[in-house]
Amino acid sequence: MTNKKGEAHQQRTTTQLDPLTTKGEDKLTTLGYTFDATSVFSDDFPPLPAGVYVVQMVDSDLRVTKNGNGKYLRAVLEVIGGEYAGRKFFDNINLENPSTTAVEIGHRRFSQICHAINTMQVRDTTQLHDKPMLVDVGIEPAKGEYAERNKVLRYRQRDAASAPAPTAAPRGNSGTAPWKQRPAAQ
Q1: Pairwise CA distance, residues 76 & 63, whole Å
Q2: Contact between residue 178 and residue 41 where contact means Cβ atoms under 8 Å apart
C-alpha cells in the first residue's frame, strides 16, 4: 500500500479481541479456544507398587546438589518385564558430599549397580545403560509438598533362570495400567 506521496508503508494489523477478554487490558489470560485436558495424555503416575522388578538404566547424568557442595548421579530406570514394562522411575545416588556418611551410602549403592550388571570399572555412567538387573523397590511416603514416590532399596544381579516376575499387584481396579491408557478419540 502507498501513501499520498507514493511511499510504501506497512499497514498496521490489529488483533481482534476475544469477547471474553476485558477491553482495555493489556494482560492476556484467554486462550482464544477451549483446551480439553482429557484429550492429552498426562504422565502423572502413581509410584510403582513395592516389589522386585527387572529394570535397566536408560539415562543418567551427574548433577550438582541444591546447596552446590556435592554431586549426585541421577539414574533413570525403566521396568523391562511384567505388567509394568515401560514404566520409568528415578534414583539419586550421592557421589560427592561433605557428609562422609552420604558418600559411603552412595558408593555402596553405586557398587550394587556395578555388581548387578557385572561392570566393575566405570568411567562414564553410560556404561551402566541398557543392562538388565533386579531392583527392590519401596515407596517413600509423602513429605511436605512432595507426593509419595518410589525408593530403590537395593540393586541385585539378575539370574536369567530365576528372575522373578514383579511381585506387586496393580493399584486401583482399572483393567489397564495408567501409563498404558490413552485418551479416547473425540
Answers
A1: 13
A2: no
Rounded CA separation 88/76 (Å): 7
Average pLDDT over residues 155-180: 57
Higher pLDDT, 46 or 115: 115
Sign of torsion, CA 148 154 160 164? Answer: negative
DSSP state letters, 71-106: EEEEEEEEE-SSTTTT-EEEEEEEEE-S-HHHHHHH
Question: Is 116 part of a structural domain of the chain?
Answer: yes
Q: Smallest Cα–Cα separation from 73: which of 93, 102, 59?
A: 93
Task: Give residue 59's domain range.
Answer: 51-164
CATH number, domain with residue 87: 2.40.50
Q: How many domains does the chain have?
A: 1
Judge if pTM exceeds 0.90.
no
User: Which residue blocks in 18-168 are alpha helix, DSSP H?
Assistant: 100-116
For residue 74, being part of any structural domain is answered with yes
pLDDT tens readout for residues 119-145: 999 999 999 999 999 999 999 999 998
**Secondary structure (3-state) at 61:** strand
**Residue 95 in this model has a pLDDT that exceeds 90:** yes
Rounded to whole angstroms, how far apart are CA atoms 169 and 113? 25
